[in-house]
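pinned: reference chain
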Amino acid sequence: MSVTNQKPKNERWWDDEDFQDRLASLLIKDPLVLKNCAHVLSPEDFRPLTGMYNGRERWIVVERALEHYEKYHEPLGNLLRSDVLEYASNIHLAANQVVALKEYIDTLNKVKTASPDAVVEKVVRFKSQIMKAAALQEMHDLQLTGNLTDEKWKELTDSGMKAVNGNTNGTISYKDTVEDRIARRKLDAKSARAPWSFIDPLDSMVTLAGRQQLGLVVAPYKRGKSLFLLWLANAYVLQKLNVLYITLEDPRSVVEDRLDAIITNVPIKALNAYPSTIKKRFARFKKMLKTNIEIYDGTEGGVTIAKVEQLILSKRDEGFMPDALMIDYDEEIEPSRKFKDKRFELDDVYRGLRRLTSKYNLIGWTAAQTQRETRNMKILSGDKVAEDIGKMKKVTVALTLGKGDWTDNSYYIWVAAHKNDKMEIGCEIVPDLDRMLIYDREATRREMKAHLDPNV
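pinned: its structure tokens
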């Protein structure tokens, strides 16, 4: 029997291609995996063995993912394809190798990444054993030659522990990282770090919440808070972001019907009358997407920040890593403990939400209600938020939905607070409430044209 063309068997489990693909996929998109094991990894760990099918492509992808994380402290994520192809162009990679890279990226997008913590534990344990063995060997060699001084012993011990445990104090040298900051700002400008809302007048005024930031939409009762969050959820998934949508007020069936109306453009009251149209349009929508919206119905109560974190980790274990977290709405989130003052409970909730967005590299959004007797107000400033104006100070961007002038149901979006962009500016939009659209582009353009000041 000839064995000339047989693929060589790898002796170590580390060299298993399925395992390496799974690890590569996690290094691209999971911030916790990167935080816990990037410090023990290098591209050389993925240097291809003879006979590896995707060896060189995997090596390049992991190199880009690790370098990106080292510079920007966040996953490469949706920038993977553009970053890798730019790198391939810079090193003048042959055309057939570029094709192979594209195919491998497509393959990685299909890799299941369930139970990431188990993968991390396996990686860290394996790499720790290798590093300890290397340090012991160097100590042994130095001892044999009489060169193992106390200083060298401490140096090897300290460097070995740092290699295994990473930068345990969590600090970054400001003085020595100016190049990283310049590269980060260049990346921010290039990649539009905060995703679009797809509400044209709003996007032309300001950027909204980005990674590790929290956004807030505020409006009177039944004024469109939920529709705004659902519109954003759809906009984000169209921009290749995974969305975890937690509904605490409306049951899941209502949320699903609204999303179906938004996506298929079928009026919500007519959904039951056009099942074939919905199937056809939704199939087209689904075919376009590689990301998803996961809906959690928390209307029965008991949803705390700890519960939300548990849900994030549960979905992560299933292979669904959220990019955006949306919670409708804030007063339905239970604080970790009871306070005498409602204001302190909201402090606790918003502090927890900010921690989650930072820890899991998420774009966060929630909604809040205004005070009574604000339904007919056009501009809703921060002091009109029910209970506590302090929540405006706790978020990156806060938008309010006032009553517009153009039509009976138009909205006036007011940027009530913004830490990183302009604030106290606004724009008017017209919705299509039959189709659950917070923004009807054509209707808004018509009204905008009709209300243009001829003297301007």
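why pinned: Residues 228 and 303 are 22 Å apart (CA to CA). The chain has two domains: 11-136+178-190, 192-450.
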